[in-house]
Amino acid sequence: QHITSNQGSQTIQTTPGRAPRSLTPTQRCFRIRLVPIPHRSKIAPRKASNPNPPVAIQTRPPPASLSPPLLPPSARAARRRRRRLLLAGAARERRAMETLMVDRVHSSLRLFMNRNAVFLCERLCAQFPAETNVQLLATCYLHNNQPYASYHILKGKKLPESRYLFAISCFRMNLLREAEETLCPVNEPNVEVPSGATGHYLLGLIYRYTGRVAAAAEQFTQALTLDPLLWAAYEELCILGVAEDANECFTEATALRLQQEQTSTSNLEKSNFVNENRVLSPNVSASLVDISPKHIKQLPANNTAEVPGYPHLRATALHVQNTVPSNVGQFDSPSPTVTQTSGIVPPPLFRNLHAYQNTTSGDAPAKPKVNAVNQPPRRKYLDEARLKKVTGRLFNPSGDSVPRRSARLSRDTPINSNSNISQFGGNGSDHSSGSRYEAVDEMWTDNIAATSSSLSIAEGRYFEQDKAERTLSQDSKMATGIKELLGLLRTLGEGYRLSCLFKCQEALEIYRKLPEPQFNTGWVLCQVGKAYFELVDYLEADHFFEFAHRLSPCTLEGMDIYSTVLYHLNEEMRLSYLAQELISVDRLSPQAWCAVGNCFALRKDHETALKNFQRAVQLDSRVAYAHTLCGHEYSALEDYENSVKFYRCALQVDERHYNAWYGLGVVYLRQEKFEFAEHHFRRAFQINPRSSVLMCYLGMALHALKRDEDALEMMEKAIFSDKKNPLPKYQKALILVGLQKYQEALDELERLREIAPHESSMYALMGKIYKQLNILDKAVFCFGVALDLKPPAADLAIIKSAMEKVHLPDELMEDDDL
Q: Where is the composition biased (Pro residues) (predicted)?
């Protein structure tokens, strides 16, 4: 420990334990050491009036300088090179680690190991916090159903892919405004929508769910223009009712453009494949660039072959492969047969490894292959060993006189440079026997050149012709496949478009044109069932829905409509079984809970049915039909305020959902708001102009507004649209009774009795007409038949009252509503 004291103008640092010489009695037990005051220190004197500055006394020499001596420039450069190499090695190791982790994450996502992918990707982002890795982590979160986590890590990112993933997260969290601002920033109007066609599709969905139909249609059209095979965009256009004819969308021009894109994509993949084989990965190249004799000895036995004439030397596959003629593609030459490869090395893993070795070694530029056609024969002076090498290459061990393809491959190996000759053990400086073998060597080299050139040209022409034929065959097959695919999409698209326009009969005719394997699929059968449902042909709809459910039990799309079909057919047992099956398949699907709700609604348990429909809305608030079913149940409970609320929610999801417009019309009709009822019925009729039910209710609203002529005209249209529907016939008879056209009303009711002979309200209306015509016995008979058919409790009292007052004069009878 050091103790510092100030005495006068001196700064004294003392160390206890020793007493130096000539000390005062007070300082006798201390050792005094005075240190220099640094120039940055400022020590104020004890008294401000002291004129003497502080004096620093040093009793020890200053410490030696710790800075290293100056190195010469070459040493400093070498140190910098070593540092750069160390940094480069560390960077390669980091890149290798990052590449491995990214590969593992993608592999986990492919195998649906989402939790494992999230864990590994979190480690990846902690070690390498690049934005591309953050995008991969957001993708893992979205796969793992964690959009809130993806939203958190991507907020504020500016790359296009990050913006798209952030918009997807916002869309799943129902943050539509924020998703729209991410895809189309208000402050940057010229910024393109990220991810091309899928980005435009997502933006179209946002516009659709926020009520901007025209903007949504524009985005869907743009997405379909960028990607003609984006079926989801065409499907949304059909739902909006603005899709163009499928024959105009999937045209021959589209097929040509797809073929060009596919060709360019395949060419790019081929070029990438070639480049990947020409340029190996850093780890592989590091182990293969420096091929020394030590490394050659360590190679496996199946990768080496003994060079004829040189038993002590083994040539690797590295020096055998690069012998393909220059005019033949490297990946198109057939491999030699087993008999041809009896004396040479098997083909290596990478065909162009030698070329890569020459380009990456950096010591010398890559040497081109020696071609005897382009180069004149050179006179060489070879010793006996080199002559043995040439003869060993020309004459294979099997003794065949004609050199095989394997021999041609081996003799085209570039070994004629001086460096390579010396490496293989040749003695270029020994000319003692050069004149002895000069003529023989020149003769054999001429034969080599002639044979190699002729065979190379012939093989090159053959392989070029074969490659051209294969390319033409592939192009023709691709064109045929694209035409078949577009033809299938034209049929499906046109059928779906007509179904969305509620031209159901035409849609059924289109669907019948599909081939049997395509028709007998769950999606097509459900579309056919929906078409029959809109045609109010519930028996046929039940048949196709049941077939679809039996063929694909796990298909949930359309099962909510199927449950409604069974509801209308009063199939309580089948409806209950269907609901249990759907719940067992996916209890978190809105279709399953809609089926359960219809099952309770059929039992007149409207409160329980309402709870199930609300559960469906809670699971997916973008299912318009679930909102509509909630409105129906509230209407059955006479809670018209909540009924109107749910109908409007359904219209916010899908403005063309005519069932919600119909439900609003029924509510206003019961509340005797006839003008509102007529407006909503007309809106529903504009969406589905072929529904006889909508025509009938619109006629009822017009009749309530005392517009009887328009009402009669609408009833005529409804009867013509569906002659099996009894409701418009009955309503027409009511309008005729109001106009006092009793005979026409009776004729219409007689036609109705042929269709629905067990309707009590029909016989009650016939009794009222006979009473007006003063045919009392027929009136009593009709009232009796109506009572025998067990009418509803509300109609029962009215029919009994009318039957009791049959013999009373009309002035004494009250205006009973039958």
A: 60-72
The two beta strands, 10-16 and 30-33, are: antiparallel
| Mean pLDDT computed over 529-547 | 95
Say how far apart CA 639 and CA 660 lie, in whole Å: 16
Q: What is the mean pLDDT of residues 297-316?
A: 38
Straight-line distance from the first to the last Cα atom of the chain, in angstroms, rounded to the nearest whole number: 115
pLDDT classification of 78: cutoffs 50, 70, 90: confident
Mean pLDDT over 681-702 rounds to: 94
Work out the percent of the chain whose per-residue pLDDT is above 90: 49
pLDDT at residue 51 in the model:
54
The yes-or-no verdict on residue 455 having pLDDT over 80 is no
CB neighbour list of residue 65: distance below 8 Å, 6 or more residues apart? none
Give me the residue label for tokens 């999606």: 523
Task: Please name the helix (run of DSSP H) or strand (run of DSSP E) that holds residue 714, with its range, or none.
Answer: helix 708-721
451: burial class by Cβ within 10 Å (0-12, 13-18, 19+)? middle
State how far the Cα of 120 lies from the Cα of 392, in Å rounded to an integer.
57
DSSP state of 310: E
Alpha carbon of 305 to those of 319, 345, 410, 585: distances in Å?
A: 11, 5, 11, 62
For 791-803, give one letter per residue: b (16+ CB within 10 A) or e: beeebeebbeebb
The total of other beta-carbon atoms located within 10 Å of residue 18's CB is 10
CATH number of 96-261: 1.25.40.10
What is the rounded CA–CA span in Å between residue 436 and residue 433?
Answer: 5
Inter-residue contact 463 to 328 (CB < 8 Å): yes
- What is the rounded CA–CA span in Å between residue 754 and residue 724? 10
Other beta carbons less than 10 A from residue 427's beta carbon = 14
Tell me: the pLDDT tens digits for 711-733? 999 999 999 988 888 999 999 99
Residue 155 region by backbone torsions, left for phi larger than 0, else alpha for psi between -120 and 50, else beta: beta
Choice between 205 and 311, residue whose per-residue pLDDT is larger: 205
Q: Which pLDDT value is given to residue 294?
A: 37
d(CA 280, CA 747): 90
Helix (H), strand (E), coil (C) string for 1-65: CCEEEEECCEEEEEEECCCCCCCCHHHCCEEEECCCCCCCCCCCCCCCCCCCCCECCCCCCCCCC
- Asked if residues 325 and 319 have their Cβ atoms less than 8 Å apart, the reply is no
Is the per-residue pLDDT at 32 higher than 70? no
Closest CA to 614 of 239, 571, 637, 548: 637
Euclidean distance between CA atoms 408 and 274, whole angstroms: 24
Kindly report the average pLDDT of the chain as a whole number: 75
What are the boundaries of each domain within the chain? 96-261
Give the per-residue pLDDT at 122.
95
**CA distances in angstroms from 255 to 251, 481, 487, 606, 818, listed in the order given:** 7, 10, 10, 53, 63
